[in-house]
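Protein in question passed on here:
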Amino acid sequence: MLLAFAAAALGFVAGRWTAAQPPQEDPLRALAEFRFDWLVLTPAQAAEVERLKPTFQSTLSAGCDARCAARCALVRALTAPEWDREKARDAVERMCAAHRATELAALDYLDAVRAVLSPGQQARLLARVGACLCETCARNENACCVPEGGAP
């Protein structure tokens, strides 16, 4: 039974490695370093966006640290002499929670930046973020960015 589980786990990991696309930038997290010059911000808008950045960057850093710590716990659980399913599941749950927290932080930051912008700037910003998300999502028939019956 343990051998079968180990084989399944290795198959899962190998599948993740071989099926993975080359690493691409995550557009929502890239917002922390995003330049908004192309939106032609007023000095007041630029100052407000700069004021928002440090909190967002700090939140992302903490979230990434939490996800890496959980991933290390998963590695320890997977490589321990005795299999502990609960420790492994707990590590995965913590990884997912950290990922969720950083994605929501990115969304909150985007919302805060959007609130500073004019309606035209908002539309351009959200269109650009949407395009970035589409460029980095999996290109398959179920991707939201692929119109029915055709390529994006």
Q: What stands out?
A: The chain is about 70% helix and 0% strand. The CA atoms of residues 141 and 148 lie 8 Å apart. The two ends are 45 Å apart (CA to CA). Helices lie at 2-19, 27-30, 43-79, 85-116, 119-136.
